[in-house]
Write a structure and sequence with these properties.
Mean pLDDT of chain B: 95
Oligomer: heterodimer
Number of helices of chain A: 10
Helix content of chain A: 40-55%
Shape of chain A: globular
Strand content of chain B: under 5%
Structural class of chain B: mainly alpha
Order of helices and strands of chain A: HEEEHEEHHHHEEEEHHHH
Distance between the termini of chain B: 41 Å
Structural class of chain A: alpha+beta
Largest sheet of chain A: 5 strands, antiparallel
Distance between the termini of chain A: 54 Å
Chain lengths: 348, 120
Protein backbone atom coordinates (compact mmCIF):
# COMPACT_ATOMS: atom_id res chain seq x y z
CA UNK A 1 0.00 0.00 0.00
CA UNK A 2 1.32 3.41 -0.99
CA UNK A 3 1.81 5.97 1.74
CA UNK A 4 -0.88 8.63 2.02
CA UNK A 5 0.30 11.92 0.53
CA UNK A 6 -1.04 15.43 0.56
CA UNK A 7 -2.00 16.72 -2.89
CA UNK A 8 -0.21 20.10 -3.21
CA UNK A 9 -3.14 21.55 -5.20
CA UNK A 10 -5.55 21.02 -2.27
CA UNK A 11 -5.57 22.21 1.33
CA UNK A 12 -5.48 19.48 3.97
CA UNK A 13 -9.13 20.24 4.72
CA UNK A 14 -10.21 19.98 1.05
CA UNK A 15 -8.45 16.67 0.55
CA UNK A 16 -9.93 15.27 3.77
CA UNK A 17 -13.45 16.54 2.92
CA UNK A 18 -13.33 14.54 -0.34
CA UNK A 19 -12.25 11.42 1.56
CA UNK A 20 -14.99 11.97 4.14
CA UNK A 21 -17.74 12.45 1.55
CA UNK A 22 -16.90 9.06 0.02
CA UNK A 23 -16.56 7.29 3.33
CA UNK A 24 -19.76 8.72 4.82
CA UNK A 25 -21.69 7.93 1.65
CA UNK A 26 -20.92 4.26 2.38
CA UNK A 27 -22.32 4.60 5.91
CA UNK A 28 -25.13 7.14 5.63
CA UNK A 29 -25.98 6.94 1.93
CA UNK A 30 -24.93 8.87 -1.19
CA UNK A 31 -25.22 12.65 -1.03
CA UNK A 32 -24.21 12.93 2.62
CA UNK A 33 -22.59 16.33 3.03
CA UNK A 34 -19.71 17.43 5.27
CA UNK A 35 -20.07 20.69 7.16
CA UNK A 36 -18.01 22.73 9.62
CA UNK A 37 -14.84 20.69 9.11
CA UNK A 38 -12.28 21.99 11.57
CA UNK A 39 -8.93 20.73 12.79
CA UNK A 40 -8.84 20.79 16.58
CA UNK A 41 -5.68 21.89 18.36
CA UNK A 42 -3.91 19.74 20.89
CA UNK A 43 -2.21 16.38 20.37
CA UNK A 44 0.66 17.22 18.04
CA UNK A 45 1.31 13.60 17.11
CA UNK A 46 -2.30 12.89 16.00
CA UNK A 47 -4.76 14.74 13.83
CA UNK A 48 -8.18 15.34 15.35
CA UNK A 49 -10.93 16.81 13.16
CA UNK A 50 -14.40 17.94 14.07
CA UNK A 51 -17.24 18.05 11.52
CA UNK A 52 -20.95 17.45 11.00
CA UNK A 53 -22.34 14.84 8.62
CA UNK A 54 -25.50 16.20 7.03
CA UNK A 55 -27.60 13.25 5.85
CA UNK A 56 -30.06 13.37 2.95
CA UNK A 57 -33.03 13.08 5.34
CA UNK A 58 -31.90 16.38 6.87
CA UNK A 59 -30.57 14.95 10.13
CA UNK A 60 -27.18 16.01 11.36
CA UNK A 61 -24.58 13.79 13.08
CA UNK A 62 -21.74 15.65 14.85
CA UNK A 63 -18.56 13.57 14.48
CA UNK A 64 -14.89 13.50 15.40
CA UNK A 65 -12.19 11.88 13.25
CA UNK A 66 -8.92 10.96 14.88
CA UNK A 67 -6.27 9.81 12.42
CA UNK A 68 -2.50 9.47 12.19
CA UNK A 69 -0.75 12.66 11.06
CA UNK A 70 -0.39 13.23 7.32
CA UNK A 71 2.80 15.23 7.80
CA UNK A 72 4.93 12.60 9.46
CA UNK A 73 5.74 14.19 12.78
CA UNK A 74 9.11 13.28 14.17
CA UNK A 75 8.68 11.10 17.20
CA UNK A 76 11.48 9.69 19.26
CA UNK A 77 11.64 6.00 18.47
CA UNK A 78 13.46 4.39 21.41
CA UNK A 79 13.71 1.17 19.44
CA UNK A 80 16.64 -0.08 21.48
CA UNK A 81 14.86 0.64 24.74
CA UNK A 82 13.09 -2.17 26.67
CA UNK A 83 9.41 -1.85 25.85
CA UNK A 84 10.23 0.22 22.75
CA UNK A 85 7.43 2.49 21.71
CA UNK A 86 4.19 1.98 23.54
CA UNK A 87 1.46 3.47 21.36
CA UNK A 88 -1.31 1.45 19.72
CA UNK A 89 -2.54 2.20 16.19
CA UNK A 90 -5.72 4.11 15.45
CA UNK A 91 -7.75 1.01 14.51
CA UNK A 92 -6.93 -0.65 17.84
CA UNK A 93 -7.61 2.60 19.67
CA UNK A 94 -11.07 2.93 18.10
CA UNK A 95 -11.84 -0.72 18.91
CA UNK A 96 -10.87 -0.09 22.55
CA UNK A 97 -13.34 2.82 22.75
CA UNK A 98 -16.03 0.44 21.50
CA UNK A 99 -15.09 -2.29 23.97
CA UNK A 100 -15.01 0.15 26.88
CA UNK A 101 -18.45 1.43 25.91
CA UNK A 102 -19.79 -2.13 25.71
CA UNK A 103 -18.32 -2.79 29.18
CA UNK A 104 -20.36 0.06 30.64
CA UNK A 105 -17.85 2.91 30.61
CA UNK A 106 -19.48 6.23 29.59
CA UNK A 107 -18.09 6.64 26.06
CA UNK A 108 -18.83 8.40 22.80
CA UNK A 109 -19.99 5.83 20.23
CA UNK A 110 -17.43 4.75 17.60
CA UNK A 111 -19.64 3.96 14.59
CA UNK A 112 -16.99 3.15 11.96
CA UNK A 113 -13.34 3.44 10.90
CA UNK A 114 -11.22 5.01 8.17
CA UNK A 115 -8.78 2.73 6.34
CA UNK A 116 -5.59 4.21 4.97
CA UNK A 117 -5.12 4.68 1.25
CA UNK A 118 -3.12 7.01 -1.00
CA UNK A 119 -5.06 10.06 0.28
CA UNK A 120 -5.42 9.47 4.00
CA UNK A 121 -3.81 7.85 6.99
CA UNK A 122 -5.93 5.46 9.07
CA UNK A 123 -8.28 6.63 11.77
CA UNK A 124 -11.58 6.14 13.54
CA UNK A 125 -14.76 8.18 13.87
CA UNK A 126 -16.61 8.91 17.09
CA UNK A 127 -19.81 10.75 17.86
CA UNK A 128 -19.04 14.27 19.05
CA UNK A 129 -20.49 14.86 22.51
CA UNK A 130 -21.00 18.24 24.12
CA UNK A 131 -18.64 18.36 27.07
CA UNK A 132 -15.38 19.68 28.47
CA UNK A 133 -12.02 17.89 28.22
CA UNK A 134 -9.71 20.69 29.40
CA UNK A 135 -8.61 19.75 32.90
CA UNK A 136 -8.16 23.34 34.01
CA UNK A 137 -11.80 24.15 33.23
CA UNK A 138 -13.08 20.95 34.79
CA UNK A 139 -11.49 21.84 38.15
CA UNK A 140 -12.35 25.58 38.04
CA UNK A 141 -15.43 26.47 35.99
CA UNK A 142 -18.76 27.02 37.72
CA UNK A 143 -20.43 24.93 35.00
CA UNK A 144 -18.87 21.79 36.50
CA UNK A 145 -19.46 22.59 40.19
CA UNK A 146 -22.12 19.88 40.49
CA UNK A 147 -20.04 17.37 38.52
CA UNK A 148 -16.80 17.73 40.51
CA UNK A 149 -17.93 16.00 43.76
CA UNK A 150 -18.93 12.92 41.71
CA UNK A 151 -15.92 12.67 39.44
CA UNK A 152 -13.42 10.74 41.59
CA UNK A 153 -16.03 8.03 42.18
CA UNK A 154 -17.06 8.05 38.52
CA UNK A 155 -13.54 7.74 37.12
CA UNK A 156 -12.90 4.93 39.63
CA UNK A 157 -16.09 3.21 38.49
CA UNK A 158 -15.10 3.60 34.82
CA UNK A 159 -11.68 2.06 35.50
CA UNK A 160 -13.34 -0.80 37.39
CA UNK A 161 -15.36 -1.49 34.23
CA UNK A 162 -12.62 -1.36 31.61
CA UNK A 163 -10.04 -3.14 33.80
CA UNK A 164 -12.33 -6.18 33.93
CA UNK A 165 -12.83 -6.54 30.16
CA UNK A 166 -11.87 -10.18 29.48
CA UNK A 167 -8.34 -10.33 28.04
CA UNK A 168 -9.40 -12.80 25.34
CA UNK A 169 -11.68 -10.27 23.62
CA UNK A 170 -9.04 -7.52 23.47
CA UNK A 171 -7.11 -6.74 20.27
CA UNK A 172 -3.43 -7.68 20.30
CA UNK A 173 -1.49 -5.21 22.45
CA UNK A 174 1.86 -4.89 24.07
CA UNK A 175 2.16 -6.29 27.59
CA UNK A 176 4.20 -4.29 30.03
CA UNK A 177 4.84 -5.73 33.48
CA UNK A 178 5.91 -3.21 36.15
CA UNK A 179 9.55 -4.34 36.26
CA UNK A 180 9.85 -4.00 32.49
CA UNK A 181 8.14 -0.63 32.48
CA UNK A 182 10.61 0.60 35.10
CA UNK A 183 13.50 -0.60 32.91
CA UNK A 184 11.91 1.15 29.95
CA UNK A 185 11.98 4.57 31.64
CA UNK A 186 15.37 3.84 33.21
CA UNK A 187 16.85 3.30 29.75
CA UNK A 188 15.23 6.42 28.35
CA UNK A 189 16.61 8.51 31.19
CA UNK A 190 20.09 7.08 30.69
CA UNK A 191 19.88 8.09 27.02
CA UNK A 192 19.84 11.78 28.06
CA UNK A 193 23.28 11.54 29.73
CA UNK A 194 22.11 14.07 32.28
CA UNK A 195 22.51 12.97 35.91
CA UNK A 196 19.33 13.70 37.83
CA UNK A 197 19.85 12.60 41.42
CA UNK A 198 16.21 13.14 42.44
CA UNK A 199 15.00 10.79 39.71
CA UNK A 200 17.71 8.28 40.67
CA UNK A 201 16.35 8.28 44.21
CA UNK A 202 12.88 7.66 42.76
CA UNK A 203 14.11 4.73 40.65
CA UNK A 204 15.80 3.17 43.67
CA UNK A 205 12.68 3.65 45.83
CA UNK A 206 10.48 1.97 43.21
CA UNK A 207 12.97 -0.83 42.53
CA UNK A 208 13.01 -1.74 46.22
CA UNK A 209 9.20 -1.82 46.38
CA UNK A 210 8.36 -3.59 43.13
CA UNK A 211 6.31 -6.14 45.06
CA UNK A 212 3.85 -3.30 45.81
CA UNK A 213 3.11 -2.98 42.09
CA UNK A 214 0.64 -5.86 42.39
CA UNK A 215 0.28 -8.90 40.18
CA UNK A 216 -2.94 -8.31 38.31
CA UNK A 217 -2.87 -7.86 34.56
CA UNK A 218 -5.52 -6.01 32.59
CA UNK A 219 -6.30 -3.53 29.85
CA UNK A 220 -4.68 -0.28 31.02
CA UNK A 221 -5.64 3.03 29.46
CA UNK A 222 -2.07 4.25 29.91
CA UNK A 223 -2.88 7.97 30.10
CA UNK A 224 -5.87 8.01 32.46
CA UNK A 225 -5.87 11.55 33.86
CA UNK A 226 -7.80 14.78 34.12
CA UNK A 227 -7.25 16.07 30.59
CA UNK A 228 -8.29 12.81 28.93
CA UNK A 229 -11.78 12.62 30.40
CA UNK A 230 -14.87 14.27 28.97
CA UNK A 231 -17.21 15.89 31.50
CA UNK A 232 -20.53 17.69 31.33
CA UNK A 233 -22.45 19.46 34.10
CA UNK A 234 -23.65 16.09 35.48
CA UNK A 235 -20.29 14.30 35.49
CA UNK A 236 -18.23 11.85 33.41
CA UNK A 237 -19.42 11.25 29.82
CA UNK A 238 -16.29 9.83 28.21
CA UNK A 239 -12.76 8.47 28.63
CA UNK A 240 -10.67 9.70 25.69
CA UNK A 241 -7.24 9.18 24.11
CA UNK A 242 -6.52 5.47 24.38
CA UNK A 243 -3.37 5.60 22.29
CA UNK A 244 -1.12 4.59 25.23
CA UNK A 245 -3.28 1.52 26.01
CA UNK A 246 -1.43 -1.68 26.91
CA UNK A 247 -1.71 -4.72 29.11
CA UNK A 248 -0.32 -3.99 32.52
CA UNK A 249 -1.10 -3.49 36.16
CA UNK A 250 -4.50 -1.80 36.51
CA UNK A 251 -3.37 0.19 39.55
CA UNK A 252 -1.00 2.08 37.26
CA UNK A 253 -4.01 3.89 35.74
CA UNK A 254 -5.33 4.91 39.16
CA UNK A 255 -1.92 6.07 40.39
CA UNK A 256 -1.49 8.13 37.20
CA UNK A 257 -4.83 9.83 37.88
CA UNK A 258 -3.32 10.96 41.24
CA UNK A 259 -0.18 12.65 39.86
CA UNK A 260 -0.10 16.31 40.90
CA UNK A 261 0.53 17.63 37.38
CA UNK A 262 -3.18 17.26 36.51
CA UNK A 263 -4.60 18.85 39.62
CA UNK A 264 -4.31 22.30 38.02
CA UNK A 265 -3.53 24.13 41.24
CA UNK A 266 -6.00 22.21 43.44
CA UNK A 267 -3.25 20.10 44.94
CA UNK A 268 -5.23 19.04 48.02
CA UNK A 269 -7.63 17.14 45.75
CA UNK A 270 -5.32 14.26 44.98
CA UNK A 271 -7.51 12.64 42.32
CA UNK A 272 -7.40 14.89 39.24
CA UNK A 273 -7.80 18.07 41.30
CA UNK A 274 -11.42 17.12 42.02
CA UNK A 275 -11.55 14.30 44.59
CA UNK A 276 -9.82 11.96 47.00
CA UNK A 277 -8.45 8.44 46.87
CA UNK A 278 -11.19 6.90 49.07
CA UNK A 279 -13.85 8.01 46.54
CA UNK A 280 -11.73 6.67 43.68
CA UNK A 281 -11.38 3.26 45.38
CA UNK A 282 -15.10 3.12 46.31
CA UNK A 283 -16.03 3.80 42.70
CA UNK A 284 -13.53 1.22 41.48
CA UNK A 285 -15.03 -1.46 43.74
CA UNK A 286 -18.58 -0.57 42.70
CA UNK A 287 -17.46 -0.78 39.07
CA UNK A 288 -16.43 -4.39 39.60
CA UNK A 289 -12.68 -3.89 39.87
CA UNK A 290 -12.42 -5.22 43.42
CA UNK A 291 -11.04 -3.54 46.53
CA UNK A 292 -7.62 -2.07 45.82
CA UNK A 293 -4.91 -1.40 48.33
CA UNK A 294 -4.17 2.32 48.82
CA UNK A 295 -0.46 1.47 49.22
CA UNK A 296 -0.46 -0.04 45.72
CA UNK A 297 -2.05 3.12 44.29
CA UNK A 298 0.60 5.17 46.11
CA UNK A 299 3.38 3.09 44.51
CA UNK A 300 1.90 3.87 41.11
CA UNK A 301 1.42 7.54 41.96
CA UNK A 302 5.17 7.69 42.65
CA UNK A 303 5.85 5.73 39.45
CA UNK A 304 3.55 8.05 37.51
CA UNK A 305 5.22 11.17 38.87
CA UNK A 306 8.64 9.86 37.79
CA UNK A 307 7.21 8.75 34.43
CA UNK A 308 5.76 12.21 33.73
CA UNK A 309 9.10 13.80 34.58
CA UNK A 310 10.82 11.56 32.04
CA UNK A 311 8.14 12.22 29.42
CA UNK A 312 8.80 15.96 29.91
CA UNK A 313 12.49 15.30 29.35
CA UNK A 314 11.76 13.28 26.19
CA UNK A 315 10.01 16.32 24.72
CA UNK A 316 12.83 18.59 25.89
CA UNK A 317 15.46 16.41 24.19
CA UNK A 318 13.33 16.18 21.04
CA UNK A 319 14.03 19.92 20.88
CA UNK A 320 17.64 19.84 22.10
CA UNK A 321 18.63 17.04 19.69
CA UNK A 322 17.24 19.14 16.83
CA UNK A 323 14.50 16.67 15.84
CA UNK A 324 11.82 19.27 16.39
CA UNK A 325 12.94 22.72 17.47
CA UNK A 326 10.20 24.51 19.43
CA UNK A 327 10.15 26.79 22.45
CA UNK A 328 7.23 24.74 23.77
CA UNK A 329 9.36 21.62 24.19
CA UNK A 330 12.26 23.63 25.61
CA UNK A 331 9.88 25.03 28.22
CA UNK A 332 8.43 21.60 29.03
CA UNK A 333 11.94 20.51 30.01
CA UNK A 334 11.71 22.76 33.06
CA UNK A 335 8.49 21.04 34.09
CA UNK A 336 10.64 18.03 34.94
CA UNK A 337 11.77 20.09 37.94
CA UNK A 338 8.15 20.19 39.13
CA UNK A 339 7.85 16.43 38.95
CA UNK A 340 11.20 16.00 40.72
CA UNK A 341 9.89 18.24 43.51
CA UNK A 342 6.60 16.26 43.70
CA UNK A 343 8.48 12.97 43.66
CA UNK A 344 10.69 13.95 46.58
CA UNK A 345 7.64 15.06 48.60
CA UNK A 346 6.16 11.57 48.11
CA UNK A 347 9.25 9.53 48.99
CA UNK A 348 10.72 8.45 52.31
CA UNK B 1 30.52 39.61 31.38
CA UNK B 2 30.33 43.36 30.69
CA UNK B 3 28.98 45.39 33.57
CA UNK B 4 27.73 48.22 31.33
CA UNK B 5 24.02 48.83 31.41
CA UNK B 6 21.88 47.35 30.09
CA UNK B 7 23.12 44.28 31.90
CA UNK B 8 22.36 40.89 30.39
CA UNK B 9 19.50 40.55 32.91
CA UNK B 10 18.08 43.92 31.90
CA UNK B 11 18.15 42.92 28.22
CA UNK B 12 16.26 39.71 28.96
CA UNK B 13 13.75 41.70 31.01
CA UNK B 14 13.27 44.14 28.10
CA UNK B 15 12.58 41.27 25.66
CA UNK B 16 10.12 39.67 28.10
CA UNK B 17 8.28 42.98 28.52
CA UNK B 18 8.21 43.49 24.76
CA UNK B 19 6.62 40.06 24.25
CA UNK B 20 4.08 40.59 27.04
CA UNK B 21 3.12 44.18 26.21
CA UNK B 22 3.36 44.30 22.43
CA UNK B 23 3.22 40.75 21.00
CA UNK B 24 0.70 39.05 23.29
CA UNK B 25 -2.16 41.51 22.54
CA UNK B 26 -1.70 40.98 18.79
CA UNK B 27 -1.54 37.20 18.45
CA UNK B 28 -3.92 34.32 19.03
CA UNK B 29 -4.10 30.52 18.95
CA UNK B 30 -0.85 28.58 18.73
CA UNK B 31 1.23 31.77 18.44
CA UNK B 32 -0.33 33.21 21.63
CA UNK B 33 0.42 29.94 23.42
CA UNK B 34 4.04 29.91 22.27
CA UNK B 35 4.42 33.58 23.23
CA UNK B 36 3.26 32.73 26.75
CA UNK B 37 5.78 29.86 26.86
CA UNK B 38 8.53 32.22 25.67
CA UNK B 39 7.65 34.81 28.35
CA UNK B 40 7.79 32.10 31.01
CA UNK B 41 11.16 30.92 29.72
CA UNK B 42 12.62 34.43 29.91
CA UNK B 43 11.29 34.84 33.46
CA UNK B 44 13.14 31.61 34.38
CA UNK B 45 16.33 33.05 32.90
CA UNK B 46 15.88 36.28 34.91
CA UNK B 47 15.31 34.44 38.20
CA UNK B 48 18.29 32.16 37.47
CA UNK B 49 20.58 35.13 36.79
CA UNK B 50 19.45 36.80 40.02
CA UNK B 51 19.40 33.85 42.43
CA UNK B 52 21.07 30.87 40.75
CA UNK B 53 24.64 31.63 41.85
CA UNK B 54 24.12 31.38 45.62
CA UNK B 55 21.89 28.32 45.11
CA UNK B 56 24.63 26.54 43.15
CA UNK B 57 27.20 27.40 45.83
CA UNK B 58 24.97 26.04 48.61
CA UNK B 59 24.22 22.89 46.59
CA UNK B 60 27.93 22.29 46.01
CA UNK B 61 28.67 22.65 49.76
CA UNK B 62 25.95 20.12 50.60
CA UNK B 63 27.31 17.70 47.98
CA UNK B 64 30.85 17.97 49.41
CA UNK B 65 29.52 17.12 52.89
CA UNK B 66 27.43 14.26 51.58
CA UNK B 67 30.01 12.65 49.31
CA UNK B 68 33.24 13.59 51.10
CA UNK B 69 34.86 14.59 47.80
CA UNK B 70 35.37 17.69 45.67
CA UNK B 71 34.55 18.62 42.10
CA UNK B 72 32.34 20.90 40.04
CA UNK B 73 28.56 20.78 40.27
CA UNK B 74 28.15 18.55 37.21
CA UNK B 75 30.73 16.01 38.40
CA UNK B 76 29.33 15.99 41.94
CA UNK B 77 25.76 15.43 40.74
CA UNK B 78 26.93 12.63 38.47
CA UNK B 79 28.76 11.10 41.46
CA UNK B 80 25.69 11.38 43.70
CA UNK B 81 23.47 9.84 41.00
CA UNK B 82 25.87 6.89 40.61
CA UNK B 83 26.08 6.42 44.38
CA UNK B 84 22.28 6.42 44.80
CA UNK B 85 21.91 3.96 41.93
CA UNK B 86 24.53 1.55 43.27
CA UNK B 87 23.07 1.60 46.76
CA UNK B 88 26.20 3.22 48.23
CA UNK B 89 24.07 5.95 49.86
CA UNK B 90 21.46 3.56 51.31
CA UNK B 91 22.73 4.08 54.86
CA UNK B 92 22.43 7.88 54.55
CA UNK B 93 18.96 8.10 53.06
CA UNK B 94 17.75 10.81 55.42
CA UNK B 95 20.66 13.12 54.57
CA UNK B 96 20.36 12.38 50.85
CA UNK B 97 16.63 13.09 50.85
CA UNK B 98 17.11 16.36 52.79
CA UNK B 99 19.67 17.47 50.21
CA UNK B 100 17.55 16.43 47.23
CA UNK B 101 14.46 18.18 48.60
CA UNK B 102 16.38 21.40 49.22
CA UNK B 103 17.84 21.23 45.71
CA UNK B 104 14.43 20.56 44.17
CA UNK B 105 12.89 23.49 46.07
CA UNK B 106 15.60 25.75 44.68
CA UNK B 107 14.95 24.47 41.14
CA UNK B 108 11.24 25.17 41.56
CA UNK B 109 11.93 28.63 42.96
CA UNK B 110 13.60 29.36 39.63
CA UNK B 111 11.37 27.35 37.27
CA UNK B 112 7.91 28.05 38.72
CA UNK B 113 7.78 29.61 42.22
CA UNK B 114 3.99 29.36 42.36
CA UNK B 115 4.35 25.58 42.36
CA UNK B 116 5.97 25.48 45.83
CA UNK B 117 3.62 24.20 48.51
CA UNK B 118 3.86 26.38 51.59
CA UNK B 119 4.01 24.27 54.70
CA UNK B 120 3.01 25.81 57.94
Amino acid sequence: MAEAVQDPKLTAGEQLAAVLRERLAEEYGPGTEIEALLRLSGGASRETWSFDALKLDGTRQPLILKRDPMDRQVEKQYEGVPGGRLNVGRLVEGRLLQLAGEAGVPMPKVPFFLDKDERTTEGFFSHRLVGEALGRRIVRDDAYAAARPKLAYQVGHAAGRFHTIPLEILPAMRGLPAAEELLHYRAIMDSFHQPQAGFEYGFRWLQERLQLAGERYALCHGDFRNGNILVDQDGLIGVLDWESAHLGNPSSDLGWMCVRSWRYGYHDNIVGGFGDVAELLDGYEAGGGGRLDAEEIYFWQVFGTLRWGILCMILCFTHLDGEQRTVEYAGIGRRAAETEYDLLQLLD
Amino acid sequence: MPTDRPTAAELVEAVREFLADHVTPNVEGQLAFHTRVAINALAIVERTMADGGPMDAAELERLKDLLGQDGDLGEMNAALSRAIRSGAMDDQRGAVLDHLRKTAEDKIALANPKYLIQRG
